[in-house]
Amino acid sequence: MLKEFMETYIQDTRIVRKIMNGKQSDRLIEEFAEIIATIPDEALDENILFIPVDSFQKFSECIRINWRGSVQDILLYDAYLIFLCGYLNTMYLSEKEVVGDVQRFISKVLAEECMIYKKDSAALYWALDYHSRNAYSIEEELLDEGKALSQMEQVQEWYIMAHEIGHWMFYKSTYRDSEIAKKIKSGVKELICDYIGQSKASVMDGKGYQEYLDACMDEIYNENFIIEECVCDTFAYSFVFKKAISQKYKLENIIEAILLLYLNLEVFSMVNLTVSDFDTYDVETTIRLIFLKYYLKEFAMTEECYQEVIQRAYFRYEERIMSQVLNFLEKADDMMENLSQIECLIKPLRKDELARTLVQIDL
Fold first, then answer.
1. Are 290 and 233 in contact (CB under 8 A)?
2. N or C: which terminal CB in the chain sees fewer CB atoms within 10 Å?
3. Percent of residues, the chain, with pLDDT higher than 90
4. What is the DSSP string of 136-191?
C-alpha cells in the first residue's frame, strides 16, 4: 500500500522523465545501503525508505509522512540531476570548443523548467530552439565515458545521496535535539560567520561585494535551513572523502568534483530564476561553498593546496561554461518576457503531453 501511496505522491509532485531500469535502480539502492551502513546502530532507531526516480524536477528530497499511525521517512533520489551534470562536467573536462554545446544544453533545461512552471509556449519555443541547434561537439566523449568523468559523477552521486541522508538524521528527534547536534549547528554558524568577517575585512574591490557578503551573513542569521544544509554537507563530505580515498581517488579530484556539483547547481538555479517569478538570487550555494573551504582547511588538506585546486576549477568553469550561461540567459530573459505576453493566446498543452514531446528530443 505504501508503494501505491508514493506512486501517487510522485505523480502529483513531479513530471517523470522515464521509468528507471532495474539495473540502475538496484545500483543506487546498493549505494544507499552502503551509506546507511556507516551510521552508528544507536542512530538507526527509525526506518528510511529509498526510492530512486528520474524526473524533470531534478532534485532529491527527504520527506516524512504519517503512515498508519507511525512515522515513515522516505528519501526520493532523482537520478536526472547527475545525468544532466554529466553534460556540464564533460564540457568542463573537454578540450573542445563548447560555446554551442552550452547554448544547446541551456535551451533544453529552459524548456524543461518552463514545462514545470506550466509556461507551455515558452517550453515549446526553447524545445524547438534546442532541436534546431547543431549536435554536441562532446558527443563522443559522453558516449566513451573516461575515467575522470566517471569518477567525477560517482563522487557527485555519493555526495547528493549522503547529503539527503544527513537531512534524515536531522528529522530524527533523537539526533536533532541532542547536544552534539546543537554544538555542530552552532559551530558551523560560527565558522561561516568568522570566514565572511575575514573576507569583508580583507576585500578591497568595492561596495558591491561587501553588500553581497552582508546578504550572506543575513541569510545565515535569519534562515536556519542554511545551517542545516551545511551540517548535512558535513555528513556528506565525511562519507565521500573516506569512500573515494579508499578507492584511490586523488584528493584534488574529489574536491574538484564537489566544487563542480555546486557550480552546476548554480547554473540550474540561474535557469530557474529566469523562468520563475522570483526576483532575488539565492545565496545558499555561495554560503555552502564558503563552508566547503572551511571544511577543507580543517579536515582535508593545507590551505595552499586546496585553494589552488578551487581557483583553477573556478577559472576553467567560468571561462568554459558560466560566462556562456550568463550571456545566453541575459538574452533568454528578454525572450521570456515576450513569450509571457503571448502565453494566453496559445491553447495550453497538458503537461504530460509536453513532457512526452520533450522526452523524444534526446540530449
1. no
2. N
3. 44
4. PTTHHHHHS--HHHHHHHHHHHHHHHHHHHHHHHHHSHHHHTSHHHHHHHHHHHHH
Which residue would you say has higher pLDDT here, 220 or 149?
A: 149
- Grid cell 547543431 in the structure block, residue: 134
| Whole-angstrom distance, CA of residue 146 vs CA of residue 9 | 37
pTM (whole model) above 0.90 = no
Question: What is the C-alpha to C-alpha distance for residues 345 and 158, in angstroms, rounded to an integer?
Answer: 45
Interatomic CA distance for residues 166 and 170, integer angstroms: 7
In this structure, are residues 62 and 71 in contact, taking their beta carbons and an 8 Å threshold? no
pLDDT band at 341 (very low <50, low <70, confident <90, very high): low
CA distance 249 to 243: 9
CA atoms within 13 A of residue 90's CA, in its CB half-sphere: 21
Question: DSSP assignment, residue 57?
Answer: T
Pick from 41, 10, 142: which is nearest to 89 by CA? 142
